[in-house]
Design a protein that fits this description.
The complex is a heterodimer of chains A (178) and B (213). Chain A is mainly α. Chain A has one domain. Chain A is 71% helix and 0% strand. Chain A is built from 9 helices and no strands. In chain A, helix 3 crosses helix 4. Chain A is elongated and about 55 Å long. Helices cover 76% and strands 0% of the residues of chain B. Chain B has one domain. Chain B is mostly helical. In chain B, helix 5 runs parallel beside helix 8 and helix 7 packs parallel to helix 9. Chain B contains 9 helices and no strands. Classes of the chains: A mainly alpha (178), B mainly alpha (213). Chains A and B meet through helix 2, helix 3 and helix 4 of A and helix 1 of B.
Chain lengths: 178, 213
Amino acid sequence: MSGGENEWGRLMAAAQEGQAAPYRRLLDELRQWLTRFYARRLPPAFVDDAVQDTLIAIHEKRHTYDPERPFKPWLVAVARYKWIDRLRAMGRSATEELPEEIAVDDHESAVTSSIVLTELLGELKPAQAEAIRLVKIEGYSVEEASARTGQSGSLIKVNIHRGLARLAAMVQKQADVE
Amino acid sequence: MSNESLIDTLVGELRPVKRQKPLRHAIWLLGLAVVELAAFLALGTMRPDIGSALGTAAFWWKLGSLGILAIAGTLVALQSFDPSRSPRQGLRRWTALAVIALLVGWIIDIGSAGVQALVARLSWQMGLECLVTMTALSIPPLVALGILMRSGASTDGSGSALAVGAGSATWGAFVFAFHCPSDDPFYIVVWYSLSCAIVVGLARLVLPRVARW
């Protein structure tokens, strides 16, 4: 954070009054913060979309920020909400494969970067965690994951769907997972 | 679209906004409650025995409990439209208040004279009319709070919807209490709870979907 938490609150207060320059500075700084936030919580392929969704949400809901209160809890609450949204969306599209550019070559960095997500997977049943790790984080196809784990293709899809729904519910209950 | 282009677009669309003020919303809702109550009574619905009812503990228990529950539920809902505030603790307190209200009703019921058959005390025909009217009276606050929830930024859609439902249901029941001729705690607990359950269920079913952001 370049200007400190209170500085962000001041910039947002100016943005609420319609001042473009402080708003641009705020969004630029938030973009960097959000990229780091989601890089620890989502597979790399989903980070950019989550950052953009959150920037749009911040724009649409900026009237709900009270400048007399700290900015960071407001920001974290919005970012967490969009994180949960993204986990649910990943669960709904359980069969969707990751784009080519982040597929199998980049397994190690993908796993390392989404460290909070990896930690959370430890709370799931092993079969669910394995299916999510292989398909959603490491970029294997459902068929490849099926071959590696011995689970049928449809079981892989069910485990991804149920596992991500459970993850979203767990995150919703926690204050925050740093 | 790249992040830079998105930021350009958002900055280009920037307009001044009016900050969300829960106190302003609370005053606006209080006005709505007064208008709804006045309109309902203007239809000639005030119970004819209101004079004698004012002297009974059961009437004040009914009115007081519903008023407190309506205010508490509505405040929990309003607070939960701020993204950084969860409605869960407020909902637990609201539930505790509802349990206390039921216990007080039970104590009043024990003190009442005569033992009537429970089925007769339910007065089915009147009870069903009560159920329909009470639920209808909950719709205006449900819509008003739903609009506020949609314009707010609740990060716990289910919790906010439950709070909206609890506030609206007890609000509708409070207004209805000026008409309802029964002060029998057993009747009130059964029929009023049923109406509350319908409104809370409706809010829980619909609001998280329409207030997504």
